[in-house]
Design goal:
By secondary structure, this protein is of the alpha/beta class. The chain is built from three helices and five strands, in the order ββααβαββ. Strands 1-2-3-4-5 form a five-stranded mixed β-sheet, with no helix packed on it. Strand 4 and strand 5 form a beta hairpin. It is globular and about 35 Å long.
Length: about 130
């Protein structure tokens, strides 16, 4: 999977970005379709875990949060999205049909995190 460039995992039961953390290791990934899943539909029950996410073990996580708080991004609401998207170099992302996609400022967040994004939910971002 080291050369995987296109991945369509739409129409599944994926409920959080933390479940997608292994995708951050695929550096060749350019197109990702996450549409019509359940991302953002359920809050993450952090009381069941000692650490709320595998992402929380990254040393640079706190630095990332501080950086995005400076540009008025709601880190508490989008922490898992921040840690997921900031490490991707996508040209195209489809996430429509997920509850998180309809949240205020989510599109701006994604555009801030993925500088090289050219297509977002089927629309040219330029």
């Amino acid at each position: 999977m080291q050369h995987l460039a296109f991945l369509n995992i739409s129409n599944n039961q994926i409920s959080s970005f933390t479940a997608l953390e292994p995708l951050t290791k695929i550096i060749s990934l350019k197109v990702l379709d996450l549409s019509f899943n359940k991302i953002g539909a359920h809050s993450i029950d952090t009381t069941r875990y000692i650490c709320s996410s595998p992402f929380s073990h990254k040393i640079e996580a706190s630095e990332a949060f501080e950086e995005y708080q400076k540009v008025n991004i709601n880190v508490e609401e989008y922490w898992d999205a921040i840690l997921f998207f900031r490490s991707l170099k996508l040209a195209q992302l489809d996430i429509k049909g997920n509850e998180i996609a309809s949240k205020e400022n989510f599109r701006t967040l994604v555009m801030t995190l993925i500088h090289c994004l050219k297509w977002f939910d089927g629309e040219d971002v330029n």
